[in-house]
Design brief:
The structure is a homodimer of 383-residue chains.
Chain A (H helix, E strand, L loop, with lengths): L1 H18 L13 H7 L1 E3 L11 E3 L2 E2 L7 H5 L4 H18 L6 E4 L5 H8 L28 E13 L2 E13 L2 E5 L6 E5 L2 H20 L10 E7 L10 E8 L9 E2 L2 E6 L10 H15 L7 E9 L2 E10 L5 H18 L6 E6 L5 E7 L7 E4 L4
Parallel strand pairs in A: 6-9, 14-15
Antiparallel strand pairs in A: 1-2, 2-3, 4-5, 5-6, 7-8, 9-10, 10-11, 12-13, 13-14, 15-16, 16-17
Organism (chains A, B): Liquorilactobacillus sucicola DSM 21376 = JCM 15457
InterPro entries (chains A, B): CamS
Keywords (chains A, B): Lipoprotein, Signal
């Protein structure tokens, strides 16, 4: 009697597996369901200590349950998406170090959930984090959209070939400018939001998000949840926005305190209305720019994004654009930039330099890590 | 009497210098003319042992006297320009090693000269390397254009702060397909040129070029001249053409013998009409491609250019294009590629991998040198 039961259940599981179509290589026939769900995983491998390994399931990257939501929200300034995600990962690294955690794209909040939360509150959408539409069209009378984007990241620990959810990070992007139209396809108007109001609305939204997350299936009460608050940059900005505060909830669903983040991005060269926090960096950049700009008879455009923590420069992304007339010009220019950057640009911070032709194609690339003094160089060639 | 003479000549040289307008920083007033011409030089600095330093004169890169001629000639397939110039520099490295020679863009042949040489021979243009227009429009009756492009590179030796011309390289690009129109803005027709005819016409052109170069002012009779012969690829090719032979003239103006070059470029994956010389490489590439292609739910495009010497693969440029939905996807993908490339792609050759988004923007980049086993990786980020 017992024997027949075993044969029957084996037969059933083979049937079930066959019905699934493709079976992952690491899943051998006859495993029980519980084991399947934890063993079909691999990781991407870690090529750099400073990056997380990612999760691969049944041979494919485990993409976010809310994949693509961020792209749609940020169509006006894609820099906000890039800097938001890079900054969120950076914040997470302090809390969930890359040597002991594996990164998993958010699996708890679905596209539908995130879209509802980011929308206005209404009869049909009680979960909206943005205020109800009060019907007003005037910039100062309407209720603006405060919350612009939201992203979940999961941090896993590996043990006995299983991955366990061991940390969650949520980033919330807040507007200081809310762009809106009075009629469809009409002109764009702007409601300005004060920094104070933004912080206040952000804390209210974060409290709701934390409480909802704790009540989500699969989220243990004692998993640390990091919430990072991000201020979106305006649509005409040449750098993305920045994180201004964060909180870590060890357990439970209330937020006890917030920590300030003093990281902000700036554009080089600085202008009369937007100057970088440290004059010395501007002088260094200007000297570098002058050398590089005049290398060819035709001018080269030289700009940069710099990230500051208080008054201290933490990193530079330099962009150089010029017209090239030959491969040899690209090679010579790249070697010259490597020397010039070493001489003029600040030491002790990570710097990368991208060199583009006048058609926007990347022609060469230079980079150094914080502790390196010389630049890695690469010229994009063709056979 | 003698003293007055010295004062007079000093006064004259100051006048002459002032008339030149801008005077280079390194040129102090009162130097004689001969010294001027050799001292206003700097070099770009050398960031990689395998690249030449380039020449900077009065703070600016010394661009080719025929700058831009190559770009105009290659408008149909820009890959021919890139691979022609990269290959020419590569040929030169064997003859004029990077540790003892400095690279100078061609200063002997001007745009006007090169344009005349590349044109047809005619009453107005006795120096044309291409045959006279016989008036025929039929593909097999007309005289095709055999010589498509021509480039000069100079190799200098540094001694006592002076640069001396110590080697010249000239590349000559030959057609196997000559594209022409029967009437302006009309359809494009093609005259096919046999390999034998191409080689024969190329040797005749090279003999004229050598003899003319030796008679050019500033070219000593005993400076080695390397002439490299390049076969242009067709307009629809996804790789550039290749060098098929070269000769080195130690002195004098006749060519004694030619050396074969067995380097050729191929596209991966191979097709039924164009397969790579070594099946194992194709298998490796296909395995790599399969792993990478299926990483995301959406497919990634994976292609490569490979360079072969006979049946031996000498290098790979891999191109991967896919749609990304977040920065974290780019980071995870890049780490995965680094591991997968290490596992599947051939060892012992230089490989670089460029990862682009669906809009064509470069998102990340991986590379290894021939002797390295791990890949250098870089994700293009934004603040």
């Amino acid at each position: 009697m017992k024997k027949i039961g075993v044969i029957f259940s084996l037969g059933l599981s083979v049937l079930l597996l066959a019905a699934c179509g493709k079976i992952g290589d690491s899943t051998s026939t006859g495993n029980n369901v519980a084991k399947n769900s934890s063993s079909g995983y691999q990781t991407t491998g870690q090529n750099s200590d400073s990056e997380y390994e990612g999760v691969i399931k049944n041979g494919k990257y485990l993409t976010s349950k809310a994949r693509g939501v961020g792209v749609a929200q940020n169509s006006d300034n894609i820099l906000n998406l890039k800097s938001f995600e890079a900054g969120l990962t950076q914040l997470s690294k302090d809390q969930f170090p890359t040597d002991s955690y594996v990164f998993r794209e958010g699996q708890l909040l679905t596209s539908a959930t995130v879209e509802k939360w980011l929308d206005r509150k209404s009869k049909d959408n009680p979960d909206g984090l943005n205020p109800i539409d009060n019907g007003q069209k005037d910039a100062n009378k309407r209720n603006p959209m405060y919350v612009q984007q939201l992203e979940e990241q999961d941090y896993m620990k590996q043990k006995d070939g299983k991955l366990t959810l061991s940390g969650i990070t949520v980033g919330i992007g807040m507007n200081t400018k809310d762009y809106y139209e009075k009629e469809k396809y009409g002109a764009t108007f702007t409601t300005n939001i004060s920094k104070e109001k933004m912080v206040q609305e952000g804390q209210a939204a974060a409290a709701k998000v934390l409480s909802r997350l704790r009540n989500t299936e699969g989220v243990p009460n004692n998993v640390p949840i990091l919430i990072g608050m991000y201020q979106q940059s305006s649509n005409d900005s040449l750098v993305g926005g920045s994180f201004y505060s964060y909180t870590v909830s060890k357990s439970g669903n209330t937020i006890s305190s917030w920590n300030d983040v003093n990281v902000k991005s700036y554009v080089f060269p600085s202008t009369s209305t937007a100057s970088v926090p440290n004059d010395n960096d501007e002088t260094s950049f200007e000297s570098f720019k002058k050398q590089v700009q005049n290398f060819f008879p035709n001018l080269a455009g030289v700009t940069a994004q710099g990230q500051y923590e208080n008054k201290s420069l933490k990193g530079l992304h330099v962009n150089i654009t010029t017209q090239f007339y030959s491969e040899t010009e690209i090679t010579s220019f790249t070697q010259f930039i490597a020397q010039t950057a070493k001489t003029y640009l600040p030491n002790g911070i990570p710097i990368d330099i991208t060199v583009k032709g006048s058609d926007g194609t990347v022609q060469s690339f230079l980079a150094k890590k914080a502790k390196e003094s010389s630049y890695y160089t690469h010229v994009f060639s063709s056979y």
